[in-house]
Amino acid sequence: MTPHPSGWLTPRPEGLWCAPGGFHIDPVQPVAHAIVTHAHADHARPGHEHVLTTPESLAIMRTRMGEDRPAREQQELRYGEGLRIGDVEVRLEPAGHVLGSAQVVMEYRGSRAVVSGDYKRVADPSCAPFVPVACDVFVTEATFGLPVFRHPDPRGEIGRLLDSVRLFAERTHVVGCYALGKCQRLILLLREAGWDGPIYLHGALMSVCDTYERLGVPLGDLRAATGRARAELAGAIVLAPPGAIADRWARRLADPVVGLASGWMRVRQRAKARGVELPLVISDHADWDELCRTIDEVDAPEIWVTHGREEALIHWIEGSGRTGRALRLLGYGDEEEAPAAEGEGAAA
């Protein structure tokens, strides 16, 4: 008899636990064996005995944590490569969230479960696109799991930014963005839109950009913003952590136009509350339509929902003839999209 994944994949306080494999997925506490979907700090925690992730995620984790902190033993697994862990066949497939982000595909005695981590479905020049994998149980995030969240074309949002730069050529445009993923995506979207000049960066964004370059993602002319004369930054585009766009650091710029790139900028009250003059609705998470499309494509009879607005999505799942389950895993602050979190420059 084929065992249902609910019998061998279970939520624990540390994170999802795969019993026949003897590992946790994205554990929030130090464990013996961890598989990490991507390098955002709410999924990639230090202190494990052994960690398995993609080469790109491991390189970024080392950049952010230090060479030894991701785990005492560190193992890479490339997309599509199979590995037997205990009694479970494991492989990683692209999640389309940030560089190196992966879905964890597990097969055990004829049943298959897929843990998506965080993901999006729109094209992103900075990372590999999401790959749907048919399965018996699909674990999906629900950061934007409400029908009101339908993200516009990011190229149109970048067009709005460039229109503003042309209109207010004497002012600095400073855009808040998270250091991992969003920053590099904005840079490449700007390059695709024809901005071939320098892009200035807050110092907190430099190290991950350098890692992307080492991993084969060219970002073009990047320069440090700190220490520049105000006149030099007139007409420039500056990227900075969201926590820096409203503090003394930003006030040193030339009459800054303050922007923030986030899926939460769909809610205009949030933009107003944060003093954002130019809200850019650009998210690295799936919107409502992408969540529903993905659930249809993987065609799993059972969907487990976590990391966000579970109730509305579960209602839609059950209306489509599937079984929905809210995992309510603790400890995932959703560093990359949390509207109120500042932390390491967190925001969308």
UniProtKB/TrEMBL annotation:
TM annotation in the entry: none
GO molecular-function term, one example from the UniProt record: ligase activity
Keyword hit for Transmembrane helix: no
Superkingdom of this protein's organism: Bacteria
Alphabetical list of InterPro entries matching this protein: MBL, RibonucZ/Hydroxyglut_hydro, Xnuc_lig_assoc
Coiled-coil segments: none
Keywords: Exonuclease, Hydrolase, Ligase, Nuclease
Record's keyword annotation contains Ligase: yes
EC number(s) from the headed UniProt entry: 3.1.-.-
Name the record gives this protein: Ligase-associated DNA damage response exonuclease
Species of provenance: Endobacter medicaginis
